[in-house]
Amino acid sequence: MPWWDIYFNELYLRMFRTIMTPERTAQEVAGVMTLLDLQPGSRILDLCCGQGRHAVPLAQAGHRLTGLDRSEYLLAQARSASDSAGVGVEWVRGDMRHLPWREQFDACLSLFSAFGYFEDDAENEQVLVEVQRSLKPGGVFFLDVSNRDYCLLRMWPNDWRRVEGATVLEETTFDALTSRFTTTFTWAEGGKWESLTHSVRHYTASELTGMLQRVGLAPVAYYGSFEGEEFDFYSSRLIVIAEKSQL
Q1: Are strands 237-244 and 135-146 parallel, antiparallel or unpaired?
Q2: Global pTM?
Q3: Which of 55, 69, 157, 243 is deepest in the core (most CB within 10 A)?
């Protein structure tokens, strides 16, 4: 079973709650709307939408949202969040390599490093093919991933921290041949422990540029943060905005 069919569960939400704060989410949503200059009522696809932390506030801002995710557990959390917020969001369980839509969205979002999951580069590029097909002519793709070079600079093989009264050990390795970071989190609480592992292919800006261009998406801007800072070697994030041709 692939790691992503195991990883995104209740423990994942508990483990990242201190990172995925309401303040961070509000900052990211504001950045998406500002950097894309979204028009009111834009139809947006949130790819790997998770628990809906971006889709729900974007819907509250007046946009028409569709959220796609593989995890039924996270989609249940997303449905609850949209119901509590009183907004309508179309939640779809699916695989980002096989999207059912053609030329339906003004924008597509891939946030919080939800790109590079698959072992084969061709499969990761297939995700971009599906994004291009799903966008209307002139539609835009907002891709937010970790900056590989920054991750290498800041990488610690082992890190301990406390989260909600639990002790978490984070163990990370980097494969220089495949450019994959693999991280195992071990959560110890009440004399019991549980582990989750993710493995993500990290692409450089030049690699992403080539992939996007091959599938018919033209990069038009690169940023190092959701505040629109210039991207460079020391940026923690790599945000690429790419457009589908009007033709």
Answers
A1: antiparallel
A2: 0.96
A3: 55
